[in-house]
Each structure stands twice: as C-alpha cells, then as structure tokens.
Specification:
Helix content is about 5%, strand content about 50%. By secondary structure, the protein is mainly beta. Strands 1, 2, 3, 7 and 9 form a five-stranded mixed β-sheet that branches.
C-alpha cells in the first residue's frame, strides 16, 4: 500500500469535494481466513488522486463515516447484502453518494420518490469469509448466518396433545460453526464456548440450562395433556437459544480513521430458529458521566521532570511551584461508567479513554518551546505544559484565586461487546501556585 493510499484527507479537502465524482473502493485486510473490507472513496483532482477512508463511527478526528445495515442473507450462497449510508461530518453530515468502482458491489435500487435520507449510499455484497471492517460482533448483524449451524431435534417428533407427553430435545453444533460465527460476528481466529441455554417450548414454558462448552445438550420436557384438543397429532417444536462467549481478532478504525487490528470478546446468542424473535433484545448502551481530569507532574528543583505515575487517578486540581513547569496529562474522570444492558440485565461497565485533547486557554509564562499555546492539540501521552512566574493572586477578601487550565477532551467509550462511542467534553483543571519555601520539595 502506498503512502498516498494510506493518507486521510483533511477536513477542508473532504468538505469541498463533489461526491458525484467520487469512486467507492474497498481495501482488504486478511486475518486468518477472514477478509475485512474497509471502504474508501477516491477523488481525482487534476493529476492527484486523494483517497479518504470511511470509518464506521462519527469522530471529531476525521470527516467520512458510515452506517451499515444488513439487507438480506442468501440462504443458498450465504452472501450478505448490505446497505451503507456514508456521511461527511466536515460538511454538516451531508450524505455522500459515490460511484462503485466495481459493478459487482451491487445495485441499491433506491426509489427516487423516497426522502433522500432513506437512500443508501452504496450497497455492497460480501461473499462468505468477507466481512465489513469496524463492526463489533453485535453490529455485524449477521448472527442468522451463525444460527444455521445450530440444530435441535425432538423425540418423539409428533405427539397426541390429548395425552401427557415427555419430549426430549437434543441440540448440537455443526462442524462449520466456527466459519459461520466468524461471518456472523465479524471475527477472525475465533475461539468460543457455550455459557448457557434457553429452551422455549410450545406450551409457553422456558427451561434454563447451564453452559456446555462446545457440546450440545439434552433437555427433557413434559407437555401436559390438553383434554379439550380436537386434533390427535401435532409436530413437536422447541426454540433452542445458545449463549456463546466469543474471542477473536478483528479490524477496527483507530483515532485517525485508519484500519487497525484489535482483539475482541463478546457474548452473542444464536438459535435453531435463526430469527430475531428467537434471540434476546438488542443491547442498550448507557453513556458514562465524565469530567475533565489530568495527572499532574511538576518540574523538580534540578530542572528534570519525572514521568507520570501510571497508577495515579486523574485529578481536577493540581499544585505547582512559582517559576517551574507543570505538565498535565489529560485524562477522563469517570464519575459514572457507561453500561451495556441486554434484556434488562447489565452485561458490564464500559471503559472510557482520552484519544485527543485541545488546549483552550491563553499562553502562560512557560518557555515558548515548551508551553502550551491556544489551540494546541495532542494525544493522551502528550502533556499540556504550563507555568506561572507570579504569585497566587488574591481576591478582594484576600482569598487565593487558582489559575484555570481549560481543556477539551475527545473521549472514546468502549462497551463490553466492543461497541464504541465518541464524545467531546470541556472543563478546566484548577492550579494553585506555591513558593518553594512553603512546600517540602527540592
């Protein structure tokens, strides 16, 4: 891949582009036997061709993003037909309509009478072992593909409803389950285990059974007699739902929108019925409550600055010494973590981390080559350096007035199933200025 193909267009270039002359292509990243497809849009401006990657989530760090929707799955070929909306965040979320570079990407057949927002930007068709990059196992939205590898048989297969009948369900996983799970959960190098079963019977009762590793189960169930029944033979039915814990590798998009390999874990459900009604409700993601924090590190008397303590929790206040540099490593202070909930049950807490920051304050007394300037940006491993050469100021009642370090943080929250959300928060770190004589330091 060339340097040009690796580039991400600037906000100005993307927002000024004319999507009618844009060409949609896919870049493939192969992990094991799974090909992860990343969408790109190419535009030719004179002798220069610019390629903009299209991530799957909106971010303040890049322009183009997309939303994927599974339209249908071929029962014969197992090809998956997707509809993709593409938007330009640098141009008021304008929808982009590129021309497919390959007609085999598939026609969208958009109805011109529909409102514009109902039209897909592009409609790719993926063969087995090809999956969209960036989607979490639940966003992959193709677990009906994996459900074809779970079977449940009943003995007897018919019964007389007028008589009490003992039915025995036997479940088993097909030998191609891993392939189906890889396609259905967008994971490669996949490992899995069954952690629980839900057996839903035709008499509206439900049996809950423990996990069985990588084996099926046998579940007996007694159907009560229905003396008022007018028929003498019915087909025995059961819906078996297996909860699977998955781990594997995938291709996601980093903070700049570039594809990167990640390791993921998720809990999913598949059913012998393979329909949405057979599975649990979709995940509910509750966002975290966050505040701006930082890990402060002060300059020593000999002029050196130690590295930040990786175990130091983020603070909203720092102390510094007059005339010395203070480095603030921006962090998100989690007041309440985000949570993932399914069917009313909390799956776990989310993890929030800083992916970028912007300094919003004025210049301080720090040396020009070291101090932060208005509009400076950086990542979480780069500090904001400030310094004050004056004493702590006092108000009219001679109470100290702390200095303010205003910051905007770009924060990514990752939920237990791998789903991510990004947001920006703004706040200030307060700083008290001390004299060396008043502090037990060098």
């Amino acid at each position: 891949m060339t340097a040009c193909e690796m580039c991400i267009a600037t906000a100005g270039a993307s927002s000024s582009s004319d999507s009618r002359h844009a060409i949609a292509t896919f870049e493939t990243t192969t992990i094991g036997n799974v090909a992860f497809e990343s969408l790109s849009i190419e535009e030719t401006r004179g002798p220069t061709t610019v390629r903009n990657r299209v991530a799957v989530r909106r971010s303040v760090r890049y322009c183009l993003y997309s939303q994927w929707h599974l339209r249908r799955v071929s029962e014969v070929s197992l090809e998956r037909h997707y509809g993709v909306f593409i938007y330009d965040a640098c141009d008021n979320d304008r929808q982009v309509f590129p021309t497919p570079a390959d007609p085999l990407l598939g026609p969208c057949n958009n109805d011109d009478s529909l409102f514009a927002s109902a039209k897909y930007s592009i409609c790719p068709i993926f063969a087995p072992h090809h999956v969209p990059a960036g989607l979490t196992p639940h966003e992959c939205d193709a677990l009906s593909v994996a459900s074809t590898a779970l079977d449940a048989t009943l003995t007897p297969d018919t019964y007389d409803p007028r008589l009490p009948t003992l039915l025995t369900a036997t479940t088993h996983f097909a030998s191609n389950l891993v392939e189906r799970l890889s396609d259905g959960a967008c994971l490669a190098n996949l490992d899995w285990r069954d952690t629980g079963w839900t057996m839903r019977w035709s008499d509206s009762t439900t049996d809950t059974r423990p996990g069985s590793g990588q084996q099926g189960i046998t579940d007996p169930h007694l159907l009560a007699a229905q003396p008022a029944a007018t028929d003498t033979a019915r087909t025995a039915e059961v819906t078996a739902v297996a909860t699977l814990h998955l781990t594997g590798d995938a291709v996601d998009f980093d903070a700049t929108g570039a594809p990167t390999v990640v390791h993921r874990a998720a809990d999913v459900q598949i059913s012998n019925r393979g329909t949405a009604s057979a599975l649990d409700a979709s995940a509910v993601y509750t966002p975290p409550r966050l505040a701006v924090g930082a890990v402060p590190v002060g300059q020593r008397g000999d002029g050196t600055i130690p590295p930040p303590d990786p175990h130091q929790p983020p603070l909203t206040h720092a102390d510094t010494i007059r005339g010395r540099l203070l480095e603030l490593f921006p962090r998100a202070l989690v007041l309440q973590p985000g949570t993932e909930t399914r069917a009313g049950t909390t799956i776990g807490d989310a993890r929030s981390e800083v992916i970028g920051w912007t300094y919003l304050g004025p210049p301080t007394d720090a040396p020009a080559r070291e101090g932060a300037r208005p509009g400076d940006t950086g990542t979480a491993d780069r500090p904001i350096a400030v310094q004050w050469n004056h004493a702590e100021r006092l108000d009219a009642e001679r109470h100290p007035i702390d200095e303010q370090v205003p910051i905007r943080l770009d924060v990514r929250t990752t939920y237990p199933d791998g789903h991510t959300e990004e947001e920006s928060i703004t706040g200030s770190i307060t700083v008290a200025i001390w004299y060396v004589a008043l502090m037990d330091v060098g």
